[in-house]
Write a structure and sequence with these properties.
alpha+beta, 3 domains, six-stranded antiparallel beta barrel, 16 strands, 30% helix
Amino acid sequence: MTACIWEEEATEWWPGTYMFRRKQDFFGLVTLCGQTNHTERSYNVTRAFSNDGKAESEHLPSVSAVHTTISPQVMRACGLPLSLGDGFSYVLPGVHVRRDFAFHETIEIFFSAAERDVEDRQREPEFCDSAFFQDRPAALLSDATLKTFCVRSKLTHVGDFIDVVRNVEDMAVDAVAGCDNDASHGDGLAPAAVGASASSRSATSNLRAAQRSACIVHQVKVESAFFAGKEHGVARDNGVHAGDFVAQCTNRDGTGAGRLVGRHWMSPSLNGGLVWLAEDGGRAVSIDSVHPSVTTDARAHHERTTGAYPWTCYTSQRPVRDPGDDTVPIEEVCVAFYADGFIIRAGRNQSAGGVYMIHPELLVADRVSRHAVRVIGVTPAGVSFDQVLHAISSDLKVSTTAGWLVNDPDGNPIRVLVDVGFF
């Protein structure tokens, strides 16, 4: 029975109405270029076993024949149009989406997750049910204010009193430079500690103890926490820069103590990822740890932390379909890009890079398949995959403003607006 079915299917290859002259050519292409995890070496083993004792007309094609003849022929017949860059080729994201919207089987999976009922969304939340998708301004804290944050594995709330332990080595650099220090919130070493630096071994030990004591900023209150906006810029200095996390702190008497700053831009000219900027000036000093102060009122702390972030169930979904104002319906899709480097083992090892696109709003069951990944481009050795991202930026600009005009499976026009979720 199986042999009869195979003979019926095989006859379809011989009339020449398809892009493959023989079924062996199709097998070679799928094995080498498809998602079968076959290497060239394993294909050669399969080919030698299959070709043994058969006529030459029934032999599997060689690796070079697949790469130089069969694969280009298939790409010309039904492949996606390629754009050419400087030493590489790529497929525009709009081309992928246009192809996906042209078939019923692929267009429906874009909306199957977002159009579930409330019970299904609560039972099995998907990406489209997350705060990042439903209420992105709130998820990204676009109002720049925070109620709680975690520093050095310590959960801290606005209104808490904390002790900040600064780095001893950074403090010593300031001491050598002659910086002044205020024992409560300064940036350098205590004058007494500096004076003891010329003493004997025991004095040196006392110096280190004084340094450790001077490094601690005691009992400062977290008044506010936010992410610095674009007005702070990205100058190469020790101040606050756009994108930095900032916790403004005061002394117990209400005077300014300093700022706890988490660097977003890790420039080599700047010190560590978490620094202390004293209110009275001085260089940024790296922070070793942050601890809750013993002066924190437990009752007030409980009132601040209870219900700080209530769990939200989005009973009304963010719309992904819109009738549109010009009779052309608007449909929104979310895309995310990722890139990686890998080794091509073809004769000799060669490095390469790749850029890929996925659709996070798909159901997990659809998204985990390798068929859900869209290849944007592969770059050879010596070409950075950043060039692929630059090449597709103009296409993405159109998709996020005017939108891509595509056709659905029935030929009706659709305007697709793209939400670039993350990279």
